[in-house]
Specification:
Elements lengths: L1 H12 L4 H59 L1
Length: 77
């Protein structure tokens, strides 16, 4: 157990080279970009779903108004 703690402490105190730091940051950046892409895709999916629902609701309202106008027009004839 002591060996594990010692190795961990050495890693924490160790100064990493520029290449190692850049590689670690690049890897982390890729992971964050992937998560951001997933989040953006999910947001787009939700917006699309909301848009479809609003079109369906708007379409139903339009159709009801159309039926009422058609009934009024038919009564005039």
């Amino acid at each position: 157990m002591n060996d594990f703690v010692d190795r961990t402490l050495i890693k924490l105190k160790r100064e990493y080279s520029k290449d190692e730091t850049v590689a670690a940051l690049t890897k982390k950046l890729r992971e964050v970009e992937i998560e951001l892409g997933k989040a953006n895709a999910y947001i787009s999916e939700l917006e699309d779903e909301r848009h479809k629902k609003s079109l369906m609701t708007g379409g139903e309202i339009w159709f009801k108004k159309y039926i009422k106008l058609k009934e009024r027009f038919d009564k005039l004839n």
